[in-house]
Amino acid sequence: MIETDISSQRRAPHPPAAPHAIANPARKTTRILLASLALITLYALATIAPDNVDLGVAGKSFLHNLDLMFLHPHLGQDTLAQLVDALARSIALALLTTLIGAVIAFGLALFTARNLAPAPLATAMRSLMALIRAIPTILWVLVYATVIGLGTEAAVVGLSFHSVAYLVKAFAESFEAVPQEKLDALRVSGARFGLVIRHALWPSVRPSLLSWTFIRFEINFTNAVAVGAAAGTGGIGYYLFMSSAFYFDFQEVGLIVYLVLAFAILLEMIAVALRKHLAKMV
Amino acid sequence: MAELTQFFNRQRWQRAATLMMLALLLVLPQWLLHVDFADALFGIGAGWQWLGKNFMPNQAALGDLGEILHQLGRTIVIAVAATSIAGVVALLLALAGAKTTSRLPLVQMGVRLFASCMRNIPFVAWALVLLFSFKQNDFTGFLALFLMTIGYLTRAFVETLEEVPRGVIEALEVTGARYWQIIGQGVLPAVSAPLMSWLLYMIENNIRDATLVGMLTGTGIGFIFDLYFKSFRYPSAGLVVLAIIAVTIAIELTSTKLRQVLAQ
């Protein structure tokens, strides 16, 4: 209280004008960007109101369902064993696709990093990966579900595809961060490509590859749940879809959400521990 | 010499342990899932072939171009609006939750816990629960994107705000500046670039995810893809995919460029 009083007394009658910002492209960009985002948002808000839904009623029903979900979770159609098994399947799917993705991505990233591969090849690989990444995971899964049949295989191929494209970009950037001197030191001693990779590249990039792979594992877990719901490939996502869109049992949805949350928070704790461990490794 | 032997022995053990663990991580999922890898491998080539044969947009598909572009535009607008509003809310939450800008440990913990839960609640659950109450329209997609963005942005903003040096805040505190003056004149200008960068990244991500959210909530580009795909109008579905690719790559390039400018 007293502090504010003093400070308001101390203020000069005519506050000095704030010093002019140094002409700074970042600041100008920020302003233009904020203005455009605000405009788009206003336009969206003005045109978004649905004409066939009473928002008050819908909001109330939503809050009621949230109450059912989060405060009264229970088992519905399925047993706990079924749900835990489905969760384990989703985790397994995420694990498998991340590992497959990481191994393939490591190989491909060697041809994508500008300091390892010839420039035209690096550019071509980069564009191809950007193209694959631009296609949403769910489309890959749907396409493969059509071609090889609905099942785990479609989910594995679809999720791995996207993981590879994502990790190639991340890995290649990690490779490019390796100091050129390190690679050259081995090259001038006559080491072949494989030896340069093994003894100069690998030790320097190991921590960052590990942390990228873990990030992708978290993404793949989310994707595994989503794909199970949207493409019907099984796992906890499928149960989530059935309980909410088919049985309208929001209490079971709540229980499934808590199961997924428990695993996700465990993952987050592992991530924190991993990051500490990696910080020590460097 | 003994030390060296010990070192190599330990290294060998570590390598063996790592390999064992990797093998376990591969075998365990396979034991649960029984993936037929031959089938999967065959599928990769077949999938591309199938795409090339069926998804080529033809003359009839071009007739849907107007509708596709309209839905794509709506999707982008909604993704931008949902992310921007989530950004404003997340900024307020982050101010209350960051150690540098908040003095209430209990609130800090509360914000973190909230962000962590929101981040990890599967967005499938959000989408489906919202769909039940708000029915199939753009507003449902908007709410779903909003709810799934809040957690991510709050966490990112908290981390960004905590990187503001104490000195900046203390320097303003000793001049007698009030809380909002410190935030407005000291903290926000210091972090505006990384905050904007996060916002852009999330917009980019949300436009990518909008396809999936749209499939679940029956809105925007995801809905129209689902519609074409399920009614076997593959050339039109192919056109949707091409449109998504073009937009995603354009947004990724723009956002990367903008983030480079911001980082200066």
Automatic annotation (TrEMBL), chain A:
This chain belongs to which protein, by name?
PhnE/PtxC family ABC transporter permease
Pfam families found in the cross-reference section: BPD_transp_1
> What PANTHER family does the database record attribute to this sequence?
ABC TRANSPORT SYSTEM PERMEASE PROTEIN P69 (PTHR30043:SF1), PHOSPHONATES TRANSPORT SYSTEM PERMEASE PROTEIN (PTHR30043)
Lineage runs: Bacteria, Bacillati, Bacillota, Bacilli, Lactobacillales
The UniProt regions of compositional bias labelled Polar residues, in chain numbering, are: 1-10
Q: Is-annotated flag, keyword Transport?
A: yes
Q: Tell me how this protein sits in the membrane.
A: Multi-pass membrane protein
Q: Which domain of life is it from?
A: Bacteria
| Residues passing through the membrane, by range | 32-49, 91-116, 128-148, 221-241, 253-274
Q: Where in the cell is it found?
A: Cell membrane
Q: Which organism is it from?
A: Lacticaseibacillus yichunensis
Identify its protein family: Belongs to the binding-protein-dependent transport system permease family.
Q: Do you know which PROSITE patterns this protein is assigned to? A: ABC_TM1
Keywords, A to Z, come to:
Cell membrane, Membrane, Transmembrane, Transmembrane helix, Transport
From TrEMBL, chain B:
| InterPro entries tied to this protein | MetI-like (IPR000515), MetI-like_sf (IPR035906)
- Specify whether Transport is a keyword of the entry: yes
Q: Where are the transmembrane segments?
A: 76-98, 110-133, 179-200, 212-229, 236-255
Q: Which residue numbers delimit the ABC transmembrane type-1 domain?
A: 72-255
The record, for Pfam families, names: BPD_transp_1
Predominant location: membrane
Membrane topology term reads: Multi-pass membrane protein
Q: Where in the cell is it found?
A: Cell membrane
Entry keywords, A to Z? Cell membrane, Membrane, Transmembrane, Transmembrane helix, Transport
- Record's PANTHER family? ABC TRANSPORT SYSTEM PERMEASE PROTEIN P69 (PTHR30043:SF1), PHOSPHONATES TRANSPORT SYSTEM PERMEASE PROTEIN (PTHR30043)
The UniProt entry's sequence similarity note says: Belongs to the binding-protein-dependent transport system permease family.
The name under which this protein is listed is ABC transporter permease subunit
Task: Identify the species of origin.
Answer: Lacticaseibacillus yichunensis
